[in-house]
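Data card: per-record layout.
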Amino acid sequence: MKSPDSRTFFAGIDGRTDTQIPDWYAERTADSQSMSFADAVRTLPRAVDTSVAYRNHYTDEWVETDRFNAVVEPTRLRAQAFGEAAADPLFHVPSDSYTILNPVDVYAPLEDVLRENDLDGRSLGEVMFGEIRQYRGGGEVHMDVMFDGLEVRLPGRSAPITMGLTSGYDFFGGHAVYVEGFAQDGYCQNSIRSLTDKEAIKHVGELKEFRSWWETILAQIELIADDLFAFIRDAQEATIDFTTVPFDVIEFYELLAFPTYLADRAGADAEANADDPFEIDMWTLHSGATYALTHFFTGKEGSALDGYVRTANDVLFNPEATVERVEQAYEQELHASEESTQVALDDEHGLARIERVRRSIRSDVEQFESREAALRERFQAAVEQ
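The structure for this 385-residue chain is written out next.
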């Protein structure tokens, strides 16, 4: 993933909480200072709007317009005015319908909700930790927020999968703010993103009442842990025998439209972590994909990453559709390269072998579908409460 301009680690909701970062995460932050979440949010660049003018080339005059406003960072305006070195204060020049949502507008209500909700007798504000990443001079921000103790523990692993959320915003006309379910696998430091549908607010309309919004989202996050464990357990039972299909592990990821550099990393990780490198279960294949995306993806956070994350999550949550997608991609490649009757015959044999794998996985997939439907129903119930 593209390196951020800055990265801030946080632990605890404010200076009154004594939050200990879990050992598996402390190793990652050993060379960095952390601060409270409240302090981290209040150090983020904010935005205000100011008037815009255009130059009339015939009169050499500047004419102000009410149809647009410049979105700028106020402390950088001051630094510019006094000749001090500072980043460019201008973020964006949107129309007059643009609504600015500053970090405190969005995340101060989250702080209140976290203080008032608990996990095993401790407020969520006491067990929260994570990081904030800034891009484009702080005009684009993404953060991972996790809760120590809200977790999935897999047999044989020393570190848990810790649940939380990813949120962010930008001042460039994209999402004013978004949030989605997130987990971090402490065993391998893999990020498991998009565990819930992304909730997003645009830069238009009235300011949202964020308190109830955060309450609904947190209710969903707390539902995920048990279901994630069940999905992983079932995915460990669904396997692909790579000695019986016409592609290897790396080609499996390439058929899922992963670029070769990511497919190479994903395939190597899946084979290294599989009990049998020739017959790999869908959880291990999913973990290989998240390993590649977490540690080697060279694009930007946001839409450039989201598509690959959805594909990786389908390996875990929708294995039959994943194999069907592989089958279709393989067939398309074959049709593009057919040169002889013998090649066509071999192709048919290869497709038949993939179809047998899909039928085998389909026999196990009903439990996935019923659990996914139940999870959606519980999410909806949480929204309607």
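Known properties of this structure: The chain has three domains: 6-43+102-210, 48-92, 236-384. The first strand starts at residue 6 and ends at 11.

See the next section for split statistics.
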